[in-house]
Design the sequence.
């Protein structure tokens, strides 16, 4: 098979499945599909979309994700965090479930998908490394808390507007009057049922069982006909693939930051799932190809009239747990969603919205772990402060959640630059093991009375060159007896033009003051830059040492 064809259609490299694999994939796929249907409807409502859009997003996009991705067992589709990002990004731009809201959500899917495809095509998958785990973790926990809080009124059967008015007036009776007690019973009952059987959820379709029970009760009691909040009538049939009408330039400008955040944050969720699956199955995956697969899934979702999708950590873990072996499991899940769209939309219409709110809350509570911040505080207080600040910024910025993670990114970048601009530069002496170590830390004598030996634990670049220069020149100025300076360059992995210029300046300036510069442990890649830039010609061979042991022996022997 031509390499070019395999590159653009990676699923052509899939091995031909045998009957055992297909049986395992069928069991896993149908299990996943039965859970995906009620979750998809719930996450559509979390995103502010019509309930049917959840089924559209759960139909073709998961299959596209698997076919063009690199990890065959990812459970893609609507997810809580991405849905919350959609709702937050569009808040204030339109009314939820309106035609304008749907149009903007579709374009969010197309734009975030295009960004992911571009990243993957340019092989820039490492861009996710610029989002530190501490920031993503803090953002995820804050977003999870917001998701729970946003769904509590619906789960408790509260009329949000009436409850807020009653609370503002401190009227307890009015608050109780705003409660739909039947809806509250559906919500709390579902919540209790799912929590009690949480440990069984990987073996039994408990979400589907809860959906069947609440749906039948809602139908039997005529809950919707009596004014109860239910999903309502859904259009039957398949989504129509269509390109949406163009927006104004101002709309695109408003959506672009949110699309970029959705593209990166949703991929971090896919990244964690793919890593877990890869370690369990011992199959390699490619982050650039996965970017393309996830991007195509988002675009397919947009063309289907739905919102951005992503890989679900919980559904991916379930897919692995129930024995899926290949990407064929996604096709069996597709059959479940297809059957729901064709035959089950009248039944889904009876589902209480309180039930759907509980379906959202239960898996999201797994993301809330205060111990995350405690562990961070013990490991790095600076990162813990950034994480806490990210969580607070996310809560303050709600519903515009993208500003929370952008604040965390900026703080992390600032801390990173601060660390790089303040490299660790120390005077070294000879340790008992014969190596050069920090004099102050190990209380070591100087290498020689007239020698200042220094080590910098960083690359010699435009960021670190000035601190090194100041450290050496200030010490020599304060200690007139110094006649030799040894720069132990073992930790220096790279050097740029500013680093070269600084080193040339140091050699010349110190030599004018009667101080000679020595180098030791220069790495090959740095040595090549020295040769090309003329640094090597400024120092006699006897002032350059291959190893620190050679430097110690020679400089001690020639001590004044």
Sequence:
């Amino acid at each position: 098979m031509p390499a070019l064809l395999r590159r653009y259609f990676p699923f052509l490299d899939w091995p031909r499945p045998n009957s055992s694999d297909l049986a395992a994939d069928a069991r896993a796929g149908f299990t996943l599909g039965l859970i995906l249907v009620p979750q998809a409807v719930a996450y559509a409502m979390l995103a502010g979309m019509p309930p049917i859009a959840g089924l559209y997003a759960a139909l073709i996009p998961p299959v596209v994700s698997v076919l063009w991705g690199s990890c065959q067992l990812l459970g893609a589709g609507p997810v809580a965090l991405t849905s919350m990002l959609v709702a937050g990004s569009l808040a204030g731009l339109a009314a939820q479930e309106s035609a304008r809201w749907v149009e903007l959500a579709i374009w969010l899917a197309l734009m975030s998908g295009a960004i992911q495809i571009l990243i993957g095509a340019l092989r820039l998958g490492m861009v996710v490394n610029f989002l530190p785990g501490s920031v993503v973790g803090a953002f995820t926990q804050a977003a999870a808390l917001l998701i729970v809080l946003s769904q509590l009124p619906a789960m408790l059967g509260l009329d949000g507007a009436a409850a807020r008015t009653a609370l503002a007036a401190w009227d307890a009776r009015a608050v109780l009057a705003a409660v739909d007690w039947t809806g509250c019973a559906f919500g709390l009952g579902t919540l209790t049922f799912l929590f009690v059987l949480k440990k069984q959820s990987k073996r039994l379709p408990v979400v589907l069982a809860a959906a069947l029970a609440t749906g039948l009760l809602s139908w039997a009691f005529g809950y919707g006909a009596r004014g109860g909040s239910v999903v309502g009538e859904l259009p039957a049939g398949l989504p129509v693939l269509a390109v949406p009408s163009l927006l104004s330039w101002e709309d695109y400008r408003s959506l672009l930051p949110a699309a970029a955040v959705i593209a990166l944050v949703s991929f971090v969720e896919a990244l964690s799932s793919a890593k877990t699956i890869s370690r369990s199955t011992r199959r390699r995956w490619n982050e650039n190809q996965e970017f393309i697969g996830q991007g195509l899934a988002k675009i397919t979702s947009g063309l289907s009239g739905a919102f951005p999708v992503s890989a679900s950590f919980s559904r991916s873990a379930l897919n692995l747990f129930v024995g899926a072996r290949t990407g064929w499991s996604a096709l069996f899940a597709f059959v479940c969603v297809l059957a729901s769209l064709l035959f089950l939309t009248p039944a889904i219409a009876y589902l209480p919205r309180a039930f759907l709110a509980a379906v959202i809350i239960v898996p999201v509570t797994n993301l809330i772990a205060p111990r995350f911040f405690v562990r961070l505080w013990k490991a790095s207080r600076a990162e813990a402060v950034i994480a806490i600040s990210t969580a607070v910024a996310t809560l303050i910025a709600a519903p515009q959640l993208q500003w929370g993670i952008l604040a965390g990114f900026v703080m992390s970048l600032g801390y990173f630059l601060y660390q790089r601009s303040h490299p660790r530069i120390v005077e070294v002496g000879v340790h008992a093991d014969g190596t050069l170590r920090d004099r102050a830390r190990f209380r070591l004598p100087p290498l020689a009375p007239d020698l200042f030996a220094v080590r910098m634990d960083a690359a010699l670049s435009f960021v670190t060159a000035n601190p090194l220069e100041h450290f050496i020149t200030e010490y020599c100025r304060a200690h007139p007896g110094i006649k030799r300076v040894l720069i132990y360059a073992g930790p220096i992995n790279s050097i740029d033009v500013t680093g070269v210029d600084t080193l040339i300046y140091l050699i010349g300036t110190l030599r004018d003051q009667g101080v000679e510069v020595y180098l030791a442990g220069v790495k090959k890649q740095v040595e090549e830059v020295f040769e090309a830039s003329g640094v090597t010609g400024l120092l006699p061979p006897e002032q350059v040492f291959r190893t620190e042991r050679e430097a110690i022996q020679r400089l001690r022997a020639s001590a004044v």
